[in-house]
Amino acid sequence: MLRMGNDKLGARICPLVCVCCLLAALVGNGFDVPMTLLEGAVDEGAVCLDGSPPAYHFSPGFGSGMNNWLVHMEGGGWCTNVQDCQSRRDTFRGSSKYMKPLSFSGILGNSQNSNPDFYNWNKVKIRYCDGSSFTGDVDEVDPATKLYFRGAKIWLAVIEELLAKGMNKAENALLSGCSAGGLASILHCDKFGDLLPAGATVKCLSDAGYFINAKDITGTESIKAYYNEVVNTHGSAKNLPSSCTSRMTPSMCFFPQYVVPQMRTSLFILNAAYDAWQIKNILAPSAADPHKTWNDCKLDIKQCSSDQLQIMQDFRSEFLNALAALGNSSARGMFINSCYAHCHQLAKQWEIGFMIEAPFEKLIVHIHVTHHAATSCKPYATIVIGLFKCGTCYLTSTCIHEQLNVQLAECQSPGWGLLLSQLGPRPNKKEIGQH
């Protein structure tokens, strides 16, 4: 990373000020999808925080996509203790009674033009009403609070319902999620793969779910304490990957950096290095900023001081280091941008990473995105996004000092390609042991 004076920090973090450099001008119209309440799951104990039945939305596949499945998990943070979960219980984050209809767009869209590879797949969105990234599992219910911590049961009940609907015959299957759902896509990835047919191609996509173990601006490990509360309150330990909990305190296994190296199922990570949620809640949480000196900066990064920009730049470096420590694997890929954003894949304006032209089975190389200062901003920069695909990253006119570099093999053919589609099969045990 280039070191520059404080007066040039704004130039180094230009993508934060710009409209996200990686946005492709592709717009997909959303379409309404009815909600299904899983009433039968209540008898199995699979319920939201308030005891109401879990819910999901299902759009059937057709044509060549009839045997392909995309299961997306909704995000929405976590609740850490009884009081926190009680405040969540009587909202759509804790009860299906308050859930409203929603539309599918982005990677769940039905437009062949903007979603050419998933538009005709069976598409599912699992609603999030447990506050634990679908990991909670406490049988007892305190009659005083009437809170149910059953996230893991919700996840399994919905997946079993989908298997009965035809996912047991899936040829290709993708488990995805955003934010807390993106974390869930990592935590449940191998389990999802184990439940699918042996011959199916199964992969996972984590969007804005790579939360790192980092100290806040006071040097306090606040996010570590936060996740410890979540895991203890929800009884999550038994549902976290044993490959991690056998080595570490269970709450540490809420950090993907300690889970991903041992995963058996192909994973693609999509994240902003300046993830807006992590900047606001891991780096500069309210408890670490009693005088609210970060408030304006967190709301509008153009209001950040040079010192705050430097701290954010250091956080970006820490985030990239947490990714680099994973090592290389043909079963793992990533697309990391320098936007100040959180979640990408359901936006009507799609990120560059979601246009697929390659077959679902092709291999991918490990990708590392870096930024460096340049004397002037080119109107566009070519991005090599795989062994076989290229793309174009359009930069805004206000982006004066940045251009995007991707360190990869030479591109061999033009077009937009989704790195996810080129992920290799599950790594063997020997490969897993190398990380």
Automatic annotation (TrEMBL):
GO terms for molecular function: hydrolase activity. It is an enzyme of class 3 (hydrolase). Coiled coil: none annotated. Residues 1-30 form the signal peptide. Transmembrane segments: none annotated. Its EC number is 3.1.1.-. Keywords: Cell wall, Cell wall biogenesis/degradation, Hydrolase, Secreted, Signal. Its main location: secreted. One of its GO terms (biological process) is cell wall organization. InterPro entries: PAE/NOTUM. It comes from the Eukaryota. It is found in: Secreted, Cell wall. Hydrolyzes acetyl esters in homogalacturonan regions of pectin. In type I primary cell wall, galacturonic acid residues of pectin can be acetylated at the O-2 and O-3 positions. Decreasing the degree of acetylation of pectin gels in vitro alters their physical properties. Belongs to the pectinacetylesterase family. This is Pectin acetylesterase.
